[in-house]
Amino acid sequence: MKNLIRIIVISLMIVSCQKTPELPNSNYTIGGGVFVVNEGNFRSGNGSLSFYSYDSSKIYNDLFYSVNGRPLGDVPNSMAINGDKAYIIVNNSGKIEVMDQSTLKSTATITGLISPRNISFINDNKAYVSSLYSDSVTIINLINNSISGYINIRRSSESIASTGNQAFISNWTGGKEIMVINTIDDQVVDSIEVGIEPESMVFDRYGMLWVLCNGGWARLNYAELVEINTSTNYVEKTLVFPTKEASPTCLKIDGLGTTLYYLDNGVRQIDISSTEIPSITFIIQESGEYFYKIGINPLNNDVFITDAVDFVKQGYLLLYDGTGKFISKLEAGIIPGSMCFKLRINT
Amino acid sequence: MRNTLLYIAIFLSLPLHGQMSIGTDTIKINEVVISRNKYNSDPAGYKKTTIDSSILVNYSNSNLSDMLSENTDIFIKSYGMGGTATPAFRGTDASQTLIDWNGININSPMLGQSDLSLIPVGLIDDVQIRFGGASMSLNEGGIGGTINLVTKPLWKKETLISINAGTGSFGQYSGLMKVKTGNYKFQTVTKGYFQNSENNFRYLNTEIGSEPVWQTRTNSQVRQQGFIQELYLRNSNNIASARIWYESADRNLPASLLTQPNTGEKQFDESLRTMLNYDAFKGSTDFSFTGAWMMSRLNYFNRLASIDSRNLSETLTLKAGLENPIGEYAKLKIVLDEQSSVIKSNNYAHNTTRNTATMTASIERNRNRFGTTILLREILDKNNLLIPDFSAGVQFRLIDNKTYYLKANISRNSKIPTMNDMFWVPGGNPDLKNEYALIYEISYEMSQKISEPFNLKYDLSVFRYNIKDMIEWHPGEYSYWTADNIQSVNSTGAESSVSLDYMRNKINASLKAGYSYTRAIEGGSNIGNDISVGKQLMYVPENKANASFRVGYNNIYSLWVANFVGKRYITVDNSKYLPGYFINNVSTGIKFTLKSSSFDMNFNIDNLFNINYQSIAYYPLPGRTYFVKILFQIVK
Hints:
The complex is a heterodimer of chains A (about 350) and B (about 625). Chain A is mainly beta and about 350 residues long. Chain A has 2 helices and 28 strands.
């Protein structure tokens, strides 16, 4: 009887219908590839998860829905893998979906976050999550998948990078600082002034923290690329972009930790020893394309670019090899955004 | 009688085509004399639709959005109880639909659209719907069409007082009072109302977990109130009127099922509309002058995102019309329309003004069974003369003295960009061109008394819209979006309606049914490799149908309204859609009349079968809803 009621209830529910996505064969996860987080249109609830498999050279779309039978949420922003779990930060749903990284079956949903953006794993028990609209970084207990506390940094947060006992948190919208947190006691211990709107950060092979400061949308300030020594928390080097029109985003680094990549009207490349912003474009953005995010495969330096087209329709995942040679273009979800590499183990 | 049955059989065996509520009233609420307002008259060759007054009475405690979505072909995009609701005609969008008050556009000049959830049906005496080219005789910019809300006096030497109070599920309660009084020369009309609703309905949330869960809608309270005061004066050659309409609405905006709750989203809308009108009839020439000043305020607040958006617009409209016969069968109309808007918004760089002047000339000719209309319009915007718009209509009466018409029209209609499209910071583009459409329409209308108690009406229209230079926001060269004229849409479809009235002795009955089919196809933009080209527009249902059956016996009446909306795509490549829904409402009441007063008690059930459905994805709509109301009326 209970089953009957459930069947009736389920048959009455409203489900947005869709094309059945092509499901990867069950062992696709053995191979390496990259997850693409498709943001979907703001408030339309059509965010989704895609996976590009190196084994089949194919993209598999709408994976979260096909595995879990419900939408991923509104504007998923980023994804990260920690051990056998994968985490998707769903910004406008205020939640984190915790999944088994090989089956993608949701194992927990952490709700009640305020506009979460990115996650950084501090240790096996703890992660920090940044927030666009609150003054606090949220501390997540990874054991029981719950919010265990907040660190008030008095400003919004975007990118998080942690090393040793320090976490560096960028204050992107309207800010110009990197806040430093002691990850043992979760206290703010320092702040580092950088350029306007620090958006993305990476560590290089020497443990230096590179911060890409966007300069702000109104183009009133120059964008900057800033190198921070994480043992002293001092700025070692500042490279200023040549014009105020430059609006670089999405700083990444190769597997060796020596070449930086970012988007600025195409993909650009810069060596960490360089003393000026490069004028040449590594991968040119063609008319009708909108390069939104990039990902660099740390094993072979393949460049993945998400093309958001017009931010309304389905976008594309573009794949180039390490020399910048075009390999393929594959249809992804709506507004394909940030990527998360799933590296082949034992190859 | 046999003929009658044959007619019924034929028309009921047609796939219930049509859209309901064309034409006369089955139940006369008040006999009214319509003042002459010549430039609002109906030109030959165009389809027009008027909502039945019995329908309006039934929806007196509801908003225009519910009434239109359940009784017409117009699809209403509704965010549910407490949320905004905007109309879409024949595959066009909300900013291409004009909402008029007595022929003056009341759309916000910033957004270019009106929120129909804030317009109470109880304040309105007549709702006229003009599709496509037919709207051009009223106003410019109604590419999709115009919904004209008419308020009017009695022109009788009597006093009408009506008081209407109702309460229903989810904390709904509302009250409406109307006083119409005066004599043949002077009339005053006063109407006031309030509506409160908690909108805390239960719905089944299937989207957030592996098991569906019942939840209660939160942050969806609405409080709104308003009044209309009107004064009319007339003598044999002149009519003068003054009108004021005030509205305010305070509401919390409910969130999508997938977005985080407690964003503290709320909106305050306030509008003050004033209008002076003077009509003079000098010999064979009619003059008409209207001056309207309207203020509208929209403050939007989102606590989570720290958005505090404050917007105030003021619009002054001056309209002058002249109508003069030419020869025996034709008449010439000339209308000058000047609109200036001032916007104060913290989303614009500075206070911004815009002036638009329009001249419209039209000639109508009616002789024997033929009627023709030709209309030409020139818009002067920012001191630029734009490509003129035009419309031409023909109509042919198939049989002398019988109501069988064939009508056809062709139009070019354009719409100036909204002020947000031009001046929003960032991304507004002051160099935008007008959107324009070529509109073709053919229709057939008939009305026939079949036999003594039966009257039958039927109509069928086929339309085609080619809309060009549509404005779309897209990511620009920098990291913000910008507006450009890049999109085109081709919309093709048909509408049909049938209505059958029966009136004999103590029984009156009325059956109406309507159906519309709309293929609104994305014609493409300048963005390469466009997968949406050739696909149906999002949120335009291909199929929509409605039906109602009303029956009255002595002082008891019942009404059944059924409404079907087919699937609507929710992605531009049509890969996902919301399933169609079929909603039934029933209403029954009893009316006592005692000398000059009457007392009407009504019980209403909306969504009788408790269907779980959505008009916009992830915004739930209420299940079964009860409403009880009483209407007390005195005529002296």
